Amino acid sequence: MFKEAKEIIDKSNNIYISAHVNPDGDAIGSTIAICFALKKLGKNAKVVMPSYSTVFEFLPGVSSCVKSIDDSEFDLLIALDSSDNTRLAITQDEYNRAKKVIMLDHHQISSPYGDFRFIDDKKSSASEIAYLFIKSLDVEIDKDMATLLYTGIMTDTGSFNYSNANSDTFRVVAELLDYGAEAVKVCKKLNDTMKESKLKLIAKTIDNMEVFYNGKMRYSFVPYDEIRSLGIDDEDAEGMTNYLRAVEGTEVAVYVRGKSDGTNKVSMRSGGNVDISKIAIEFGGGGHPRAAGYNMREDEETEKQKLIKVVGEML
User: What is the full DSSP assignment across 77-140?
Assistant: First the structure.
């Protein structure tokens, strides 16, 4: 399934890998693992990651990521976990410098891009796709790569609690453990450790929560100035939606956070009766039936009322 992509890689030497801005565990794990694989093939490979949450500093290879693309032209860009090339952690000018683009993604996508595309929304994560991709390159997966890919799969499946963790996912995870993935360490760092500021953000999210449709929809907006007052950056401000979704009877949970650039990001989770990927696509984003998101294009109150109406119609 990756034959054409392998042919492109064989003809490329100078390669950059990038995922979406404000990278989560899946974006970080998949990009760096592929970078390690390409280096084993003798390629000059680099991951572009301008910023990331400090909670991921323990992962191998994170400190070696570059903030931007210096080359005026390069052979290949491998884009992961980004349903739109404008959401990649590079500029459009940097994107346009690539002679070829390979796109690997697991979201429902309205506007695919790249010279080679592999999109499978039945896969749990970009890291699960990255695992299959690396295997197709006949590269031996080592402990560091296994740990990175395990991190990506674990975080994107909510520690294997979400419905996107299927039997294929668990088979991949079993193989990653055989390769030496440090599952206990990853769990301790990401699930059992929390900054005090993060705990305060959880409290703020719950305090700002609004309830609609007899508890079937829960919505919380945390403005950027409130996030900044807690000493939290864009990357660490993620992950609040699940606390809203955990309330009994909730069908759709919506967490909106202000960002440092003045925009508002919407993260949604569904209990399964509402396909929120359709909502996200309608509002210019993307995702999965149970996990999706987008960036608001209008002011928060206007967009909130539109979203409440759409969710109500779908409920």
Answer: EEEES-SSGGGBSS-HHHHHTEEEEEEEE-SB-SS--SSEEEE-TTSS-HHHHHHHHHHHTTPP
Run of H or E residues at 206:
helix 196-207
Residue 146's closest CA among 165, 160, 130? Answer: 130
Count of residues in the chain: 315
Q: Are the beta carbons of 279 and 306 closer than 8 angstroms?
A: no
SS3 category, 15: strand
Distance of CA 244 to the CA centre of its chain: 19
Torsions phi, psi for 78 (to 5 deg): -105, 115
User: Which residues is 105 bridged to in the sheet?
Assistant: 119
Mean pLDDT to the nearest integer, 57-70: 96
pLDDT digits (tens, 9 = 90+) for 7-62: 999 999 999 999 998 899 999 999 999 999 999 999 999 999 999 988 999 999 99
Residue 277: what residue type? S
Question: Which pTM value belongs to this model?
Answer: 0.85
User: Please, which contacts does 291-300 make with residues 24 or more away whose CB atoms are closer than 8 Å?
Assistant: 291/162, 291/164, 292/268, 293/265, 293/266, 293/267, 293/268, 294/265, 294/266, 295/263, 295/264, 295/265, 295/266, 296/256, 296/263, 296/264, 296/265, 296/266, 300/221, 300/256, 300/264
Angle at 170 (CA atoms; ends 188, 81), nearest 5 degrees: 75
Sign (positive or negative) of CA dihedral 203, 204, 206, 207: positive
Q: Which two tokens stand for residue 174?
A: 């079993």
Cα 109 from Cα 125, distance rounded (Å): 14
